[in-house]
Amino acid sequence: MPARPSVLLIAAGRIEGERLRRELIAAGYSPEYVRSVDAGIARQGRRQYAGLVLDWRTLEVEYLGRDWRDAWDRVRPASGKRNATLVLFPNDPPEMPELSQPGVELLGRAGTIGADDLQAALTRLGESAELPEPAPSEPWFGDSEAARQLVEHAQSAARWEGPLVISGPTGAGKKTLAESIHGWSAQRNGPFVVLNCGDPALPALPDDSRASAYLFHLGLLRSAGQEQLLRVLDRGPACRILAGVTGGNGALWERVRLGVFREDLYHRLLVFALYVPGLDERKSDLPPFASRLLEGICRERGIIGRRLLPDCSAALASRAWPGNVRQLRNALMSAVAKAGGRTDLAAADLPEPVAFGPEEPDFKSRVLAFERELIGAALHQTGGNRQQAARLLRIKRTTLIEKLKRFGWVDAED
Description:
- This protein is an alpha/beta fold.
- It is built from 16 helices and 12 strands.
- It folds into 4 domains: 6-129, Rossmann fold; 145-277, Rossmann fold; 283-355, Helicase, Ruva Protein, domain 3, CATH 1.10.8.60; 363-407, Arc Repressor Mutant, subunit A (Orthogonal Bundle).
């Protein structure tokens, strides 16, 4: 059964909004209903819709005393070609040159508009504008050669129907890349399901050939879950399997070497692999990437765009970002909040580096974190049996106990 075209519906009045939502469903569309223009702008920033239905009174009231033209332009973002847009008026539509644009139709007497009227108008607009099918926005990791190659390889991977492993440091954008691969693939009209492999058993995979399942923290999957996943792969899963691994290209193999991840499952999964480099590995991409990230933050919050001043961009480029995109996003959100109504963000608006981690990567702390992860995985796999965990890790039981004491996982007298 073909997927219903998605339509964004913006109507402040709850009764009229619910009525229009039902009429759109009856007309064969899949509406997303929001009650404010700013919320609609945020939705448009996250995905592309086949059509937009706007109750004019919502824009008129929300932007009373303000210039509504900027909001009008932002709620109809240009992504290749614009949405098919219906603007509904309570009475006969007025003469408004600002709204006389290709792909826009004004309809009056909104309270009497039904499913047939909506379907006919959206169909007319779709045919006249030659609108493309909704497509996922391309992830932008930067202009460096490494970033461009990553996107090219990801697009090639989207055509591959087998399992795919995406590795990279924490917060680098592994899930974002997985979502984009799903959007480029033959499964793009199906659901994208995120499952946590840190749970005791393998989470239930969707029984849908149009779905993609993203398994994050794959290296923490326990032995029972690994056996389940291997059986699923052997018989052929109904959905596409995408797996996320925190660490470098060899992170999953290191778990195999330590005996905490099955080698046969490793080879079954690692047919096609991608590595998402961290921000510290592509410093030249950081200022333009931060600007793109800032644009998205402003769209989500429905505020006027902010701009990075040169000293702010230089400060961002000089810092270390062990938390990658997640850390950078938090820093930008903090800067926007501190700047208040100012549109230009300066270096002084950024939070102190100590609030987000040390300026330089701490080798000892990273080794300690890796030890915690490996030992935690071994204890999970052995059901808490320290003797067996020590054997898996190929260390003495007394050494394991000492490390557990250092982590604070057992009492000093244990």
